[in-house]
Design a protein that fits this description.
single chain; alpha/beta; Arc Repressor Mutant, subunit A; D-Maltodextrin-Binding Protein, domain 2; 3 domains; 9 helices; 14 strands
Amino acid sequence: MDRLQAMATFVAVVDSGSFAGAARRLSLSAPVVTRAVAELEARLQLRLLTRTTRVVRVTEAGARYAEDCRRILAQVEDAESAAAGTHGAPRGTLAITAPVLFGQMYVTPVLVRYLQCHPEVDAQCLFLDRVVNLVEEGVDVAVRIAELPDSSLQAVRVGRVRRVLVAAPAYLEAHGAPMRPEELAGHATISAAGLAAQPEWRFSMDGRPGTQRVSPRMRTTTNDSAVAAALAGLGIARLLSYQAAPHVSAGTLVPVLEAFEGAPVPIHVVHHEGRRATQKVRGFVDMAVEILRADPALR
């Protein structure tokens, strides 16, 4: 097996999390895949993967090498496409991740438009209220709603949203609306772990950052269930503005403590292939950036 094939095989193992999965993906036998990775490790004199009887994990050096392999393979694909005169035709499978509600409300419409424009591309969506590791889980593009730590990922800022508190009119009629964050101690609250796992919510208090400890009546791992609980009148939920916006517009949820909102949260489109990303990745990122930046709800 030549070096480029070995690199592609190694990336397939990383993406699928197993030698057997990579073998199925590449239509090769498992021993061929195992031997290719062993030859790479011998050539590099590095351990790229750790193996147990049940799982294969990429090492830190292996993760860096996998990223380099992706870049090199993308460059080769670009060169071959340009030589064949098909450089402008994205193809292959595009894997995308985003938070559940943002994926439903914003990413899906962009993706549908992109797929309609590019019939040789298909897509896999991982809409989850947790951070997905792009390299370990074989994802091409992510939407992240957070301040991003320094990393090798390429990030393009497309907008921002606010942290808001909302409640159903029936709840506020029965219990009143808090006038200051300290009054939340006397209210039922709803916390989505994807947004705020800690029992302290951050506010801007008298022009300074501050926190207020709460004891949630309900904690949940997804934001859509927090929205549902708030709509049912269970209590005051802490959400991101885009999650609450349709219900606020409809009058089924009412904002509270708006004067104490903290700093906005940035939205980024993230990918790990850099300037030499494949055509399918570059094409989707360009379309997503253009559409999301034009959305007034995300400004």
